[in-house]
Write a structure and sequence with these properties.
mainly alpha, about 150 residues, about 0% strand, Arp2/3 complex 21 kDa subunit ARPC3, 6 helices
Length: about 150
């Protein structure tokens, strides 16, 4: 179900020079927070591949290591959040955003440094927005369930 939501999110594009900037990571980030690292990794990786596929793989084969990197981000979010220390969801999401944005270096061979650096603010905004949506839903669900 959450992978399907990631596909839906891949159709919600945010402004940017590359169409793979979308709300596809929110479900993966939420799943990582709520269910843990394995599920978060799976949904996060699938979400990116769905977005890349829907948009015709604009960066070519680079999307496959990016999907693995986003799966890693999902795993980190889930692992950090399940340590259950104060502010762990916020720290987990911040790490997920940092990993997501850090993956931009994988685009350098395709885009070059100048275009990659020009793309960075768009990716940063999208990653932060995905994390914000996931965090709000996570706290909303936890509140409704009394967790």
């Amino acid at each position: 179900m959450f992978s399907a939501l990631a596909v839906v999110g891949s159709f919600i594009h945010l402004p940017g020079p590359i169409q793979t900037v979308a709300l596809d990571s929110s479900p993966g980030f939420f799943v990582a927070l709520f269910f843990g690292p394995f599920d978060g990794a799976l949904v996060s990786g699938i979400g990116h591949l769905a977005t890349a596929s829907i948009n015709g793989f604009p960066l070519g084969a680079v999307h496959f290591p990016v999907a693995l990197g986003l799966a890693g981000a999902g795993a980190v979010i889930g692992a950090v959040n399940h340590l259950e220390f104060p502010c762990s969801p916020a720290i987990a999401l911040a790490l997920g955003v940092a990993i997501n944005v850090g993956l931009i270096v994988l685009a350098v061979p395709v885009l070059g440094w100048q275009a990659t650096l020009a793309f960075a603010p768009f990716l940063t905004l999208a990653a932060a927005l995905n994390a914000l949506v996931a965090g709000l839903v996570y706290f909303g669900v936890r509140g409704k369930l009394g967790i």
